[in-house]
Amino acid sequence: MSTALLEIQDLRVAYGKIEAVKGISFSVARGEVTTLIGTNGAGKTTTLRTLSGLLRPTSGSITFDGERLDTVPAHKIVALGLAHSPEGRHIFPRMTIEENLLLGAFLRKDQAGITEDVERAYTLFPILGERRKQAAGTLSGGEQQMLAMGRALMSRPKLLMLDEPSMGLSPIMMQKIMATIIELKSGGTTILLVEQNAQAALSLSDRGYVMQTGQIVLTGTGAELLNDESVRKSYLGED
Ligand code: ATP
After folding, report:
1. Pairing relationship of beta strands 82-85 and 159-163 according to DSSP bridges
2. Distance, CA 57 to ligand 1 centroid (Å)?
């Protein structure tokens, strides 16, 4: 069996007549952290939404754990083991933190396992445990990001996709999120990360892909991309 958990071939996605993803191919190896970087509008979010089944490709193939995903409905994709923590978090502010977490387990029936995973989320993010009965809307931005990640983990995914987890966070919160990604990886979760903060993301990535106007223009290990002159100029703010 191939080591790739996710394999994308020549994927194209359009909004009406506007093609946002123009024939990209990439893969995510089992047990690794893979990052997509790129400027605003490059097509990163569109790619993740397509992998989750929220958008349909116009052509190309998505193979996840040996199965074709490109025509599978979104809820079945979650059941197959692919979870998505979306950009902007989308937590439910009036529901409690614990209720938000439980929503992430909506397809599961194993009560004991669910309880165990709620506790695991509280171990990973103690602040969520301390405030479990409070409305999620009272959490800070960084804490809401933790809740979104905790909720995505409640489906026990084989692949966790994180869209801009550090957006709007203080440096300390961002470090916490990045440390959590490393912790999840050591626990065996495969991660596909989309990040504006290229330095932080590439530092912890096994492989990265650079997207520009709907195409992949460069790939390499995290270290190779961090040392690449064009990446340093365009994404790491160097002259
Ligand atoms: P960002 O980091 O700003 O979120 P991105 O790389 O995630 O950028 P996308 O959000 O995937 O980029 O957008 C890719 C392109 O598709 C952009 O040109 C964007 O304007 C366009 N686009 C995104 N969503 C829609 C939509 N619902 N309708 C029409 N065009 C869209």
Report:
1. parallel
2. 14
